[in-house]
Design goal:
Chain A is globular. Chain A starts with a strand and ends with a helix. Chain A has a 5-stranded mixed beta sheet with strand order 2-1-3-6-4, with helices on one face. The longest helix of chain A has 12 residues, at about 140-150. Chain A has one domain (about 5-150): Rossmann fold (3-Layer(aba) Sandwich), CATH 3.40.50.1450. Chain A has helices at about 20-30, 100-105, 135, 140-150, and strands at about 5-10, 35-40, 55-65, 75, 80-85, 115-120. The relative contact order of chain A is 0.26. Chain A is of the alpha/beta class and about 150 residues long. Chain B has 14 helices and 13 strands. Chain B starts with a strand and ends with a strand. The longest helix of chain B is centred in the first third of the chain and has 31 residues, at about 90-120. In chain B, helix 3 runs antiparallel to helix 4, helix 4 runs antiparallel to helix 6 and helix 8 runs antiparallel to helix 12. In chain B, strand 7 (about 230-235) and strand 8 (about 240-245) form a beta hairpin. In chain B, the strands form 4 sheets. A 4-stranded mixed beta sheet of chain B has the order 8-7-6-9. Chain B has a single domain (about 50-385), classed as Orthogonal Bundle (Cytochrome-c3 Hydrogenase, chain B). Classes of the chains: A alpha/beta (about 150), B alpha+beta (about 450). Chains A and B meet through strand 2, strand 3, strand 5 and helix 2 of A and helix 4, helix 5, helix 6 and strand 13 of B.
């Protein structure tokens, strides 16, 4: 049987950039991951390659995303829907852009399962543990959305 | 020929974090030659204050997404030192295996994704898929091995969960170890292939020697990475000196430089180097024969003073990590994995540790109150230790490049390659996406 994954990406010590990792934590601590596996990928985006194989059914990638939306708003999309506008030093081991990792995976012939991205617009990114009030208020709605996707 | 050169690399590519290269030459005279680090501080030492001794490693592991095993190990070692905890031999062996996993994982990615484009004349790894597709695939397979190697024992390789003060919260089974051994053995051909690729490109590594002081974890137990409480320096003439890790402040001598928001370090000379080449120079005799063979093929022996060869030293270490891990697994299987409780504190006080991570030595230092809550913390990271050495390399390399009548573009590439050779992790940046919807 194929495994489905909800993969959180972010930096735990950079405030709102940690939202996806806190969602993974919440889902695991409350045993909400009954028919999927929740993974904290943190910033090591290249490790996504481990999950790109034929034993994977589908992947929901959750990450903060600057999408010109109001802070706390979220949107789900497939990688083909967007173009990365992040100025990056190409691809590095932990300054990650998951879209570039996916592009590299495709170019190198990796098996690409169904992938959906859930982008959450951050409010504050700063070197501190925690989340902004705006994201905290919407935390449960993020959990509900993730579970509705993973349980569908 | 007296000429003008203006290099202003703002946000150097293929390194972690934000660093600038600025070189101004007017009429053949060097007016400015700087390695600048403008990253903001991140205040992790403040974040651990008030936290229980059992929580510290979970917080500091978040300093870095690549060296999170190293930060975890450095934290638990320092906590155990502060709390009078003596770990078992089994714990030490398991920790050494996960330390190898981290170094292997990071080194493979650095060599294959960040350095290879320079040696193969490409701006990034993406064009290499077309021209050297099989090499890229080998690198990605080995990267995956590194991830699985660490995850199996550490719970997960990024921000590990099982490694706690006093031992492990979850131990691997004999079957886990056998599975890991099989996985590693299945990739030996890939490792050999990567060695062949790098060896074939060795002539493209710039020839540039600048003798400096090299500092690394060093002990009688292993090629210095995790074990023991001593660090060693080796001078260009081969003279070695061993230091107790508790004296780390007197050998790192942190100081501020106007060019940098990060603290710089020095010991006996104006700067010192940490990282794979420093470990190679200090601990060469303890390398596995398979690793020494690669070093010989690359023409390396201690004391190697070409900073560009740090990446080659990483390759040597990859082989060492593979073969030592295989031996450690065999030992653990032969001895049998014993269910061991986490060792409890016998006191609360101050403790210090040193662990050698991919980019060099991590020093961690914590003090706890009588109830086991952290009063103060101090972390000195490898890239901070290397900044002064990179600056000194710049000051030596720029005149050489001018003497060789290099163009501005050639000089920029050489200086960028030099910084990349150190594999600097200037900060762990944020990772958010910035996207524009196209449909």
């Amino acid at each position: 049987m194929k495994l489905n994954y909800m993969i959180g990406i972010g930096n735990y010590s950079m405030f709102d950039d940690s939202i996806a990792l806190k969602l993974v934590e919440h889902i695991c601590e409350n045993n909400l991951d009954n028919n999927f596996q929740a993974v904290d990928l943190s910033g090591n985006s290249m490790n996504l390659l481990t999950y790109l194989n034929e034993s994977t059914g589908r992947i929901l990638l959750v990450d903060t995303a600057d999408m010109d939306m109001a802070p706390g708003e979220f949107k789900t999309f497939v990688p083909e829907d967007v173009r990365s506008e992040k100025e990056l030093s190409n691809i590095t081991s932990h300054e990650g852009d998951i879209l570039k990792v996916l592009a590299l995976a495709k170019k190198t012939g990796h098996y690409i399962p169904d992938i959906l991205i859930m982008g959450i617009q951050p409010e504050i990114i700063k070197p501190e543990f925690g989340l902004s009030e705006t994201l905290l208020k919407k935390f449960n709605s993020y959990v509900e959305k993730i579970l509705s996707i993973m349980n569908s | 020929m007296k000429k003008d050169i203006n290099i202003d690399v703002h946000h150097l590519t293929r390194v972690e974090g934000h660093g600038n290269i600025v070189v101004n030459v007017k009429n053949g005279t060097i007016e400015k030659c700087e390695w600048q680090v403008p990253e903001a501080p991140r205040f992790f030492e403040a974040m651990v204050r008030g936290r229980h001794y059992t929580e510290v490693q979970r917080i500091t592991s978040r300093i870095c997404g690549i060296c999170s095993i190293g930060h975890t190990l450095a934290a638990v070692k320092a906590v155990e030192d502060a709390c009078g905890i003596q770990i078992t031999k089994q714990t030490e062996k398991l920790r050494r295996i996960i330390k190898h996993a981290e170094n292997f994982d990071s080194h493979v990615l650095h060599i294959g994704v960040l350095v290879a484009p320079d040696l193969l004349g490409a701006p990034s790894v993406f064009p290499l898929v077309e021209t050297h597709g099989e090499v890229v695939k080998i690198v990605l397979r080995l990267k995956r091995l590194g991830h699985e190697w660490g995850s199996l024992l550490a719970g997960r390789s990024t921000h590990p969960t099982t490694c706690v003060p006093g031992g492990f919260s979850k131990l691997p089974t004999k079957e886990d170890l056998i599975s890991l051994k099989e996985k590693i053995l299945a990739h030996v051909n890939d490792i050999n292939a990567l060695v062949e690729v790098v060896s074939s490109l060795a002539s493209k590594i710039p020839a540039f020697d600048r003798p400096t002081e090299y500092m690394a974890v060093s002990n009688d137990i292993e090629y210095g990475m995790y074990a023991g409480n001593t660090v060693q320096t080796i001078m260009p003439d081969g003279t070695k000196q061993m230091y107790d890790v508790h004296d780390y402040k007197s050998i790192t001598n942190e100081f501020m430089d106007p060019k940098s928001t990060s603290k710089w370090c020095k010991n006996k000379m104006d700067s010192y180097a940490a990282g794979a080449l420093a470990r190679f120079n200090n601990n060469y005799d303890q390398l596995y024969p398979q690793a020494k063979k690669i070093a010989e093929a690359l023409g390396m022996k201690p004391v190697t003073c070409n900073p560009f060869l740090n990446s080659a030293a990483q390759l040597v270490e990859c082989a060492h990590s593979v073969y030592e891990t295989l031996d450690l697994i065999d030992e653990l299987i032969a001895e049998g994995i014993k269910e061991e409780s986490v060792v409890k504190p016998t006191k609360f006080g101050q403790g210090t540790s040193a662990v050698d991570v991919p980019r060099g030595i991590l020093f961690h230092d914590y003090t706890f109150d009588n109830d086991g809550f952290c009063i103060s913390g101090n972390c000195i990271i490898p890239t901070g230790q290397n900044h002064a050495n990179i600056q000194k390399d710049f000051e030596a390399l720029v005149p050489v490049l001018l003497e060789q009548n290099k163009t501005e573009e050639e000089m920029e590439l050489a200086l960028s390659m030099l910084v990349r050779a150190y594999d600097p992790c200037i900060s762990c940046s944020t990772h958010y996406l910035k996207v524009k919807f196209v449909r």
